[in-house]
């Protein structure tokens, strides 16, 4: 049990960075002649508390009309049990460290915006989709797949515009279940702090179900064929999945025949870690706890938290919050990310350069990745920084159809995934994993894939509360394509 965090300021590890000597000595400019060679100076970071983000600019935060209600909810949350344990986060960091060196591969996926009304059936189908993808990737890549759900906390959304306009009526944008409601009415769009309590309880219920499915039999590898049963026989990728599943089942029964039981816990249960964007800072702060064994602070709202593309300013509140928590964390990197900016983020977010601590989630867009990713990789390699490189091939490829649906094309998403691997192969670095907005349901939100979702099909099952997700067949197709890439990388001894 980790204890609630107190707000005594804590000193975080210092980093050593090379600075020009003028940065550490004050010299009148007239006296300066030639620039002196760089010297290494220890940088002592400012003290951190769970609330030190409040002294910084906090973007994308709701403006609550009732501040007393906000404070009451913060106090209530502060007294709730944590949703995750520090040991789990340490275990995840270890697994991410393996992804850093190419010994594991990350699969992070789930809704863009989770709904409070998600059914157990819906959740189970998304988990099944993740399991299937993981099996395909593991079979092709021959390495452990670290499964991280965008779930049990993905309730806050940054938005491009503060207002949404429909038929001439403008209302505040929907910002996720943690903040306001999606219905297009004035009342629904008022930020309500009580939603944070509901987010906490829904996260708890979701985590509980995830743990039950993953550890309680559903994640058993001997059930690999059952995960595909409902739909797989009807599509070519489905049949391919069943063929792979058949081979895995045969391998397992061979193990049994040899007298080595396939019913070992390592086979019969799996781990799914939870993740979300740490966007709503009052919520995140209220769930920070201090680990009595290490004295480290953890954000106990989920295992893995990331900083979004819109809130990653080095001097801003989200980076300030994230630097003090010991969870493994991610930061999104879009097309405007500069190499120096990324190195500064590495300094601040991972001063000890711990492998597995920092994941850089690239979301450049298919048109930009070949050009914009290499300078980032080169800078990180030059400075010897440990990061896990993951591709989010969704967020840079969104467009609106003529009828107004936000969508993404399977081909463009795949093009960015391929670009990600191509660049890593050229730069001799490690592509560490995939990040998808996806669901186990057969929704029609992204166009393309072998079932050929077309723009005229989008209204049939467009259920996302925010961005368009890959449906289960489109997700599985992605996994097969990537498994093929991993297989060819392996054959070429790419990681050696
Ligand atoms: O999920 C990411 C963002 O919240 C989303 O892409 C923003 O979408 P918008 O551009 O419609 O606001
Ligand atoms: C908001 C998101 O992405 P980004 O910050 O990359 O736009 C997201 O992943 O939901
Ligand atoms: Mn999204």
Automatic annotation (TrEMBL):
Documented EC number(s): 2.5.1.54
Needed cofactors: Mn(2+); Co(2+); Cd(2+)
Which family is this sequence assigned to? Belongs to the class-II DAHP synthase family.
Q: Where does Mn(2+) bind?
A: 112, 395, 437, 467
Q: What pathway is this protein said to act in by its record?
A: Metabolic intermediate biosynthesis; chorismate biosynthesis; chorismate from D-erythrose 4-phosphate and phosphoenolpyruvate: step 1/7
The alphabetized UniProt keywords are: Amino-acid biosynthesis, Aromatic amino acid biosynthesis, Cadmium, Cobalt, Manganese, Transferase
Q: Which residues bind phosphoenolpyruvate?
A: 150, 309-310, 332, 363
NCBIfam families assigned: DAHP_synth_II (TIGR01358)
Could you tell me the Gene Ontology terms of the biological process aspect for this record? amino acid biosynthetic process; aromatic amino acid family biosynthetic process; chorismate biosynthetic process
What is the protein named?
Phospho-2-dehydro-3-deoxyheptonate aldolase
Reaction it catalyzes: D-erythrose 4-phosphate + phosphoenolpyruvate + H2O = 7-phospho-2-dehydro-3-deoxy-D-arabino-heptonate + phosphate
Keyword Transferase attached: yes
In which organism is this protein found? Gracilariopsis chorda
What does the entry comment about cofactor binding? Binds 1 divalent cation per subunit. The enzyme is active with manganese, cobalt or cadmium ions.
Family matches, as InterPro entries: Aldolase_TIM, DAHP_synth_2
Record flagged with keyword Nucleotidyltransferase: no
Q: Which GO terms describe its molecular function?
A: 3-deoxy-7-phosphoheptulonate synthase activity
């Amino acid at each position: 049990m980790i204890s609630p965090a107190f707000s005594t300021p804590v000193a975080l590890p210092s980093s050593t960075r090379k600075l020009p000597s003028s940065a550490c000595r004050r010299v009148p400019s007239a006296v300066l002649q030639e620039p002196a060679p760089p010297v290494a100076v220890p940088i002592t970071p400012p003290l951190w508390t769970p609330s030190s983000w409040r002294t910084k600019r906090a973007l994308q935060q709701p403006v609550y009309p009732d501040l007393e209600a906000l404070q009451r909810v913060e106090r209530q949350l502060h007294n709730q049990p944590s949703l995750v344990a520090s040991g789990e986060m340490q275990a995840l960091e270890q697994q991410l460290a393996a992804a850093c060196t190419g010994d594991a591969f990350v699969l992070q996926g789930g809704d863009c915006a989770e709904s409070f009304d998600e059914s157990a059936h819906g959740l189970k189908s998304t988990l099944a989709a993740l399991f299937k993808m993981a099996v395909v990737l593991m079979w092709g890549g021959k390495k452990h797949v670290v499964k991280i759900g965008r779930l049990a906390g993905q309730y806050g959304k940054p938005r491009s515009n503060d207002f949404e306009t429909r038929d001439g009526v403008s209302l505040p944008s929907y910002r996720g279940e943690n903040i306001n409601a999606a219905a297009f009415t004035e009342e629904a769009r008022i930020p309500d702090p009580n939603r944070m309590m509901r987010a906490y309880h829904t996260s708890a219920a979701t985590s509980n179900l995830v743990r039950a499915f993953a550890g309680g039999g559903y994640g058993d590898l001997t059930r690999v064929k059952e995960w595909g049963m409902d739909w797989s026989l009807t599509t070519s990728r489905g049949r391919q999945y069943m063929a792979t599943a058949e081979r895995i089942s045969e391998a397992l029964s061979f193990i049994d025949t040899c007298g080595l039981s396939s019913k070992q816990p390592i086979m019969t249960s799996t781990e799914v870690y939870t993740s979300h964007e740490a966007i709503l800072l009052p919520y995140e702060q209220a769930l920070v706890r201090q680990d009595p064994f290490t004295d480290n602070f953890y954000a106990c709202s989920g295992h893995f938290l990331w900083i979004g593309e819109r809130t990653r300013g080095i001097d801003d509140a989200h980076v300030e919050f994230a630097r003090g928590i010991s969870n493994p964390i991610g930061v999104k990197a879009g097309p405007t990310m500069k190499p120096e900016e990324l190195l500064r983020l590495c300094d601040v977010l991972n001063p000890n350069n711990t492998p597995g601590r920092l994941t850089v989630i690239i979301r450049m867009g298919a048109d930009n990745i070949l050009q914009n990713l290499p300078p980032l990789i080169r800078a990180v390699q030059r400075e010897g920084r440990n990061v896990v490189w993951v591709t989010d091939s969704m967020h840079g490829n969104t467009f609106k159809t003529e009828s107004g649906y936000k969508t993404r094309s399977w081909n463009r998403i795949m093009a960015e995934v391929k670009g990600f691997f191509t660049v890593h192969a050229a730069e001799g670095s490690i592509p560490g994993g995939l990040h998808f907005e996806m669901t186990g349901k057969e929704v029609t939100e992204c166009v393309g894939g072998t079932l050929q979702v077309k723009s005229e099909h989008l209204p049939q099952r467009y259920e996302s509360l925010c961005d368009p997700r890959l449906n289960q067949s489109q997700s599985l197709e992605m996994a097969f394509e990537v498994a093929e890439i991993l297989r060819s990388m392996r054959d070429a001894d790419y990681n050696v």
